[in-house]
Amino acid sequence: MAARHLFGTTVTFGTSGFAAQITNVTPPTGTRPALETTHMTTAAGAEHTNASWRTYIPSDLGNWDPMRVTMHYDPDLTPPIDEPAETITIQYPPATGQSTGATMVFSGFMTSISAEVVMDNVATGDYELTVSGDVNLTQGS
After folding, report:
1. pLDDT of 87-123, one tens digit each?
2. Domain residue ranges of the chain, discontinuous segments joined by +
3. E-strand spans in 4-123?
């Protein structure tokens, strides 16, 4: 896998149409718990006759942790902090030789927004999106 420069990545809100000049995107991180199945007679491993090792199975329930976005803050934009879940799309630019870039699409909603207005710099802000359900990952082609 080659290094990628993802300048041109966009985040689109399907219903509210909220759009900001983004400078950093931290996509959702997926987690899936491991459920312990160890019991009092769990067999010892073949290479370790003096110890038994805990055993696990994957949970049927996973979770996508919230996504964070840094943007140029514009006080004239109305963020959808009080809106219901909507379709959110992260569109990545195509790699060399591709006509379309990869996408991440999910149902989600804004759970926080903050801004920093400083005297001698561009105003910036952050928002956080909570994913509801699964994330659809599509490779570029």
Report:
1. 999 999 999 999 999 999 999 999 999 999 999 999 9
2. 10-29+65-138, 33-62
3. 10-13, 22-26, 30-31, 34-36, 56-58, 63-64, 67-72, 86-91, 103-116
